[in-house]
Design a protein that fits this description.
Length: 98
């Protein structure tokens, strides 16, 4: 069976930001926390690929669960059938199939 690894995006983990209610000022500790983020390197984060019942593929969450035919989970190795491989290749995801 073929393996499909959905595409990834570079992502920096957000640092919590809690502004004060007084004139929009933040504490020294919060400023230090926010400055820490500039030292973080982006890391790969998998994106889910949804195969919809109309035959299309999307990476955004569909509005209705009943529209989803199958979900290929990002960050995981998804075993796929020959039919799924052909559909994913036709949709432009061929580079992510091994």
């Amino acid at each position: 069976m073929a393996i499909f690894r959905p595409p990834t995006e570079n992502f920096v983990t957000p640092v919590p930001y809690t502004p004060s209610t007084e004139m929009g000022l933040i504490s020294r500790e919060r400023k230090l926390q926010n400055n820490l983020a500039k030292f973080f390197q982006p890391t790969a984060r998998g994106r889910n690929v949804y195969w919809l019942t109309d035959g299309t593929f999307v990476e955004d969450d569909p509005a209705f669960q009943e529209d989803i035919r199958k979900v290929f989970y990002g960050g995981h190795d998804n075993e796929i059938t020959a039919e799924e491989q052909a559909a994913l290749t036709a949709a432009g995801y061929g580079a992510y199939i091994t």
